[in-house]
């Protein structure tokens, strides 16, 4: 199982969220009906709270850039679909740490740990390291069973980063397409298959 397939399994663990997100009306549609549909099941205070959270900023520009690099290492672009940053995973994580504050300090602390570790090893903060150095550092914290004791704080951080990246990606338009989820789309009747008609001697009917 490759990295994207493994992360797909994490994404599928939030399948309810995927389905709800996929069923939302196109946000670009400006009709009154679409506005009503988009808010079904939500209280006014919930909508207002989300709008307020979107006006706030938690991460610094440096932290956001680091998150983007990490997210694209976790889910890079491939021949099938775009990368985590293409799916706006960085924006998702920025929103999540405000919507669910219990993620905020662990994420900030983990980003700081990563920068300090890279400064000690490579002489540069993580986002300024070469791609090879970034991959090498991530490989030391991506596999808990193989990690050295001094890398355990990084393992904890990377686990959270990987989980949030997978959720953000597989609940995005790009990620839903990557899963192959079609939603409630109308089918197209093309008649009884030819092999079935032949089986019952009805091919000429």
Automatic annotation (TrEMBL):
<dbReference type="InterPro" id="IPR027056">
    <property type="entry name" value="Gluconate_2DH_su3"/>
</dbReference>
<dbReference type="Pfam" id="PF13618">
    <property type="entry name" value="Gluconate_2-dh3"/>
</dbReference>
<protein>
    <recommendedName>
        <fullName>Gluconate 2-dehydrogenase subunit 3</fullName>
    </recommendedName>
</protein>
């Amino acid at each position: 199982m490759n990295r994207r397939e493994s992360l797909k399994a994490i994404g599928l663990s939030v399948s309810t969220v995927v389905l709800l997100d996929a069923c939302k009306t196109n946000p670009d549609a400006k009709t009154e009906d679409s506005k009503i549909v988009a808010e079904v099941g939500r209280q006014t205070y919930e909508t207002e709270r989300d709008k307020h959270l979107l006006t706030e900023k938690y991460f610094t520009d440096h932290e956001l850039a680091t998150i983007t690099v990490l997210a694209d290492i976790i889910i890079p672009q491939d021949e099938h679909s775009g990368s985590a940053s293409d799916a706006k995973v960085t924006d998702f994580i920025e929103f999540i740490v405000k919507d669910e504050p219990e993620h905020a300090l662990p994420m900030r602390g983990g980003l700081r740990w990563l920068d300090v570790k890279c400064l000690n090893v490579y002489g540069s903060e993580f986002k300024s390291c070469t791609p090879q150095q970034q991959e090498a550092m991530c490989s030391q914290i991506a596999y808990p069973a193989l990690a050295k004791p001094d890398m355990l704080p990084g393992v904890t951080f990377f686990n959270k980063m990987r989980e949030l990246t997978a959720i953000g990606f597989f609940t995005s338009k790009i990620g839903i397409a990557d899963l192959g989820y079609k939603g409630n789309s109308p089918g197209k009747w093309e008649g009884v298959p030819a092999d079935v008609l032949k089986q019952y001697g009805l091919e000429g009917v």
